């Protein structure tokens, strides 16, 4: 256990108050490998207190008009925006991501999540049908589900937490959120803004700690009828098992093994920098990151040469350096896991073209124990290799050639995941054909990660269950009832 004197110490936020915990976990600065923060190691007791608060707050909050709730969400968005720089600094330190990404993506998107749902929730209509021959009118009404359990991961901490909190409270639910124990700081900072925004006590409760201890207590609680989870597939399996006896509503946003398909008519000037970004943004720690690049044979050599050259320009640096493109990975264990994939690829006879074990990483002395690695490109690798099948979730991407459209669709679909694909071509007909045949919840063509929050977001196969977005989140966070009136 590190000395606790200078450490930032977080507290749970229950019923509008910060509450200390009996025990704490060490949280590491990924750029130095040093403990810098203590996170509550909560369990059943804290979940009971949060459920009590959320239960008590539900009647009042759910009875407010959508317009009143919308105003609260707008105020919270404004307050987050006013704290953008402070939040970005904290996110970058806690997660290891670059300050530039935190400033330009994580925190602005967190603000947008509240603004978006504050507005979109005002525009839903309900269904109505008539059976004139029976003298009946049928219509639907929607009501909040109750206490929503929200579990979020460490890769985009505030971004993904707010993507769940915003629609949950906009629709009138009260929430208990459990951020990742590895990245809890910005969630705790957001709690400081809730009262000023007008969020009543008990509407948003945040309980920190590990998955097996506090996460499972939340998922198993009989008074929490809904769980929205983003994270790994094994954890989703466990959540599904624990929820089954209670028939909980589940939304599961899981991993990917996302293909980029690059046809010979692609505009390489745009494709190469975008594919470097889609492979290595946030250290490759985004479920939407590209990790299998299929390139048509006629342009394979040209692509590979230019892609490796562009990857080598991607600067790995201290997260606080505004010129860095990539920071540190989340943890030592994760860095070792990512490196183990590269070792496996090498032992299978694949070529490591740049990055880990090939190029030299230069870091200031203070950061040498940090969890850094260079963006790594692998070629000459078989589709059956674990590097082509499993989610690595790090700055590693594989490049392989293909000959025909049919062949590449079959190979792109040959993994258990189905989250996000990118297709690069100037042939509109081909783009439509290929996009339709890919087993993927999202297909970006000639671009990556352009988000339209109105439309469904989520994956198929092992990439998840359910979708979130304007209409989908509204439906998920509410229960529908069909009413028949005979007149
Ligand atoms: N969005 C995504 O697709 C993400 C995928 N991953 C994948 O998962 C791998 C492992 O990362 P982890 O942090 O271990 O992910 P994880 O799935 O274990 O963690 C995600 C969240 O679930 C919680 N959790 C863990 N076990 C739980 C349980 N039994 N009951 C309830 N909640 C639980 C965690 O505390 C965290 O808040 C990564 O290497 C990556 O491949 C990780 C994070 C995000
Ligand atoms: N769920 C993840 C990313 C979502 C991005 C978005 O909604 O724009 C992830 O990386 O886990």
From TrEMBL:
GO molecular function: aminomuconate-semialdehyde dehydrogenase activity; retinal dehydrogenase (NAD+) activity
Substrates-to-products reaction catalysed: 2-aminomuconate 6-semialdehyde + NAD(+) + H2O = (2Z,4E)-2-aminomuconate + NADH + 2 H(+)
Residue ranges of domain Aldehyde dehydrogenase in the record: 24-483
Active site: 253
Biological process annotations from GO: 9-cis-retinoic acid biosynthetic process; retinal metabolic process
Enzyme class: oxidoreductase
Cytoplasm found in the keyword field: yes
Main location: cytoplasm
Pathway terms, separated by semicolons: Amino-acid degradation; L-kynurenine degradation
Keyword Transferase appears in the UniProt entry: no
Role, per record: Catalyzes the NAD-dependent oxidation of 2-aminomuconic semialdehyde of the kynurenine metabolic pathway in L-tryptophan degradation.
Protein name stated in the entry: 2-aminomuconic semialdehyde dehydrogenase
